[in-house]
Amino acid sequence: MKQVWIIAKRELKSFFDSLIAYIMLILFLGFSGFFTWLFGSDIFFIGQATLEPFFMIARWTLFFFIPALTMKMLAEEKRSGTIELLLTKGLNDWQLILGKFLASLLLIAIALAFTLPYYVTISYLGSIDHGAVWSGYLGMLLISMAYISIGLFASSQTNNQIVALLTALLIGTFFQIIFDVLAGNFTGFLGQFFSYLSISTHYESIARGVIDTKDLLYFLSITFFGLTLAESVLSKRNIVE
Questions:
Q1: Burial category of 146 from C-beta neighbours within 10 Å (exposed 0-12, middle 13-18, buried 19 and up)
Q2: Is 151 in contact with 71 (CB distance < 8 Å)?
Q3: How far is residue 104's CA from residue 12's CA, in Å, rounded to a whole number?
Q4: How far apart are CA 164 and CA 72, in angstroms?
Q5: CA-to-CA distance for 190 and 178, rounded, in angstroms?
Q6: Model's pTM, two decimal places?
Q7: Which of 2, 23, 51, 190 is the most exposed place for a label (fewest CB within 10 A)?
Q8: Whole-angstrom Cα distance, residue 59 to residue 55?
Q9: Is the pLDDT of residue 105 over 70?
Q10: Cα 174 to Cα 64: distance, rounded to the nearest angstrom
Q11: In sequence order, which residues have a C-beta less than 8 Å from that of residue 108 and are 6 or more positions away?
Q12: Do residues 67 and 147 touch, judged by C-beta distance below 8 A?
């Protein structure tokens, strides 16, 4: 665990040293704040004390931001050859991947923490469902875990950051959009199957304040599967060498 934390701190420091963290935080808060308070189905338009507009836009913002955050994590290490240096310092593939996963998740958690003033402000405007708010934040973290694992898998496949970004977005599109569309076009077993694969099905349940074991298992399974695939790709590289 010590090695994982060392990698996580190294990555988190690199985010802030390269301005990636600041850019992400500013854009995330800008997009979420604009659509939460000022535009479209914002809080004042709805006329309710709810963070539903924020969670709706944040889900889409993270869908694009996380692949951009993870695209270079393994691809750049492979391209520059620094991954070999890291793996000769007593680290194994799992520790490297978990460290990068943890760093990305911590940055997302920091971004979400900066939106807590939204929660405080809305709680003063009217009666708010506190359970639904905290469930919504939990849902955001779970979605982030899933997309980070997908991003790391995509990044492990190539030395090119743009290819990693596009691959992560393509895979994420299935969970974010395509499975949901297919669920609406099929009935019976296939409809239920595609509905289960859709992120919307599980996130919307959590966002309503209903924390079900099957929803937690869904996000944890995607996370584990994505990280396992990333580790498998690195392992095959080692075998070839």
A1: buried
A2: yes
A3: 7
A4: 8
A5: 13
A6: 0.90
A7: 2
A8: 6
A9: yes
A10: 14
A11: 62, 66, 140, 141, 144, 148
A12: yes
Taking only the tens place, the pLDDT of each residue in 53-73 is: 788 888 888 999 999 999 988
**Distance from C-alpha of 68 to C-alpha of 134, rounded to nearest angstrom:** 26
Are the C-beta atoms of residues 161 and 80 closer than 8 Å to each other? no
Average pLDDT over residues 14-37: 83
Q: What is the pLDDT of residue 240?
A: 42
| Region of residue 81 (left: phi > 0; alpha: psi -120 to 50; beta: else) | left
Length in residues, the chain: 241
Token pair, residue 27, equals: 């854009």
For residue 235, the Cα-to-chain-centroid distance in whole angstroms is 24
pLDDT of residue 34: 80
Q: Do residues 18 and 30 touch, judged by C-beta distance below 8 A? A: no
What number is the average pLDDT over the span 117-131? 80
241 pLDDT tier (thresholds 50, 70, 90): very low
CB burial string 17-50: b at 16+ within 10 A, e below: eeeebeebbeebbebbbebbbeeeebbeeeebbb
